Amino acid sequence: MKKIAFVMMLSVAAWAGEWKGVISDSKCGKAHADASEKSMKCVQGCVKGGKEAVFVSEDGKVLKIHNQDAVKEHLGHKVTVMGNIDGESIHIDSVKM
Fold first, then answer.
1. What is the pLDDT of residues 54-86, one digit of tens each?
2. CA 37, CA 45: separation in Å to the nearest integer?
3. 15-25 and 89-96 as β-strands: parallel, antiparallel, unpaired?
């Protein structure tokens, strides 16, 4: 049921809400969605090296993040984000651990 709701959500332009997931990087994406110490270090290194942070939802969807500064303190962490999804990207208004 969650997958159907998430797919429907992605089909609607600018969907506001709250989602749980992990902040990863555009190179590794889902590979570092476990929020382990090893994954956190890799995500931080990739972002420092020029890759963009991405949001990986609980059901494995990878979304580009419009406002990268909103997540710079949460690289590699499991988080709950509030914001707006627009297609394959998200604008994050707030982040909670």
1. 999 999 999 999 999 999 999 999 999 999 999
2. 12
3. unpaired
Q: Are 59 and 2 in contact (CB under 8 A)?
A: yes
The pTM score is 0.84
Tell me the backbone φ, ψ of residue 3, rounded to 5 degrees: -65, -40
Domain count, the chain: 1
Residue range of the domain that includes 53 = 2-96
CATH of the domain at 67: 2.40.50
